[in-house]
């Protein structure tokens, strides 16, 4: 990951910071020089300290360096998520969390969060420590560049994060919509992640948060080919209304409309989400 020393060199020189000033108390000048010439890699903790010394955040650096994190899960893990194969998912999470706890490299968390999120929904159990969750929340709260990685990290987080923290992060993202990098490529992740956050608030019975976030999402001007999100947002509003009134007919009407439009797959996904909401709310009446 941090073999991109030449990018660091350009950023350092751009701020007229010398090598001595940059590395004092962190590493030797020779090590910094070799990293800046892409001859060696540095430890993650060292890289973070060096970035802090030149006033560059981790997400800003990864964006400048055009670093592509590994986003793809192994095929067997994708299959395990689909089949709700808890032992396989648990083994994956435990192995990768051990690796993350050793490296403290937050860029390794994306896939871990995704699988942890699935296990939470299946088992009702979180495999992340309180410290893990706090670190993720702090990182996202202080994010200044909404790169693809950061958007995906948040999209995998809403059921795991504290509701108050999740709400603050979600509102930061939606209020900085125009600053999302590569918006065309990331719009599905952006809207999908925030829509999932609305669902998470509904599951947690934080209807005020769900409604406020949904109201902000409906203000976003979407390109014509993303108008299907309008239907999803309408669906979320109907679910919130159902939670208040217990009337499920407006929700079911959306399913019927989707089926008539030959969108049966999308209708099935929304139906499954609604079933989960009904179960949670009816079990706690």
From TrEMBL:
Among NCBIfam families, the record links this protein to: RGG_Cterm
Cleavable signal peptide: none
What lineage is this protein's organism placed in? Bacteria, Bacillati, Bacillota, Bacilli, Lactobacillales
**CDD domains linked to this entry:** HTH_XRE
Q: Which InterPro entries match?
A: Cro/C1-type_HTH, HTH-type_regulator_Rgg, Lambda_DNA-bd_dom_sf, TPR-like_helical_dom_sf, Transcription_activator_Rgg_C
What Pfam family does this protein match (any one)?
HTH_3
Q: Which SMART domains match?
A: HTH_XRE (SM00530)
Q: Where are the transmembrane segments?
A: none
Gene Ontology MF terms in the entry: DNA binding
Q: What is this protein called?
A: Transcriptional regulator
All residue ranges annotated as the HTH cro/C1-type domain in the record: 9-61
In terms of Gene3D superfamilies, this protein maps to:
Tetratricopeptide repeat domain
């Amino acid at each position: 990951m941090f073999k991109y020393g030449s990018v660091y060199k350009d950023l350092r020189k751009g701020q007229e910071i010398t090598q001595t000033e940059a590395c004092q108390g962190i590493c030797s000048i020779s090590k910094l020089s070799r990293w800046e010439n892409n001859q060696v890699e540095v430890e993650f903790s060292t890289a973070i300290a060096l970035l802090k010394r030149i006033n560059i955040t981790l997400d800003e650096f990864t964006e400048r360096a055009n670093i592509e994190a590994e986003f793809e899960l192994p095929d067997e893990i994708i299959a395990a998520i689909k089949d709700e194969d808890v032992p396989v998912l648990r083994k994956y999470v435990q192995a990768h969390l051990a690796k993350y706890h050793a490296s403290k490299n937050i860029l390794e968390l994306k896939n871990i969060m995704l699988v942890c999120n699935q296990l939470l929904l299946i088992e009702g159990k979180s495999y992340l420590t309180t410290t893990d969750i706090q670190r993720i929340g702090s990182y996202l709260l202080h994010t200044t560049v909404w790169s693809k990685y950061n958007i995906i990290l948040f999209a995998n987080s809403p059921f795991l994060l504290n509701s108050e923290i999740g709400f603050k992060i979600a509102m930061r993202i939606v209020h900085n919509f125009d600053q999302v990098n590569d918006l065309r490529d990331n719009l599905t992740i952006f809207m999908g992640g925030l829509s999932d956050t609305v669902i998470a608030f509904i599951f947690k019975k934080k209807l005020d948060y769900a409604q406020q976030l949904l109201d902000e999402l409906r203000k976003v001007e979407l390109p014509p080919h993303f108008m299907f999100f309008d239907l999803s947002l309408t669906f979320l509003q109907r679910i919130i209304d159902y939670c208040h009134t217990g009337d499920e007919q407006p929700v079911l009407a959306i399913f019927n409309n989707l089926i008539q439009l030959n969108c049966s797959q999308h209708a099935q996904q929304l139906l499954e989400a609604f079933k989960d909401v009904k179960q949670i709310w009816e079990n706690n009446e």
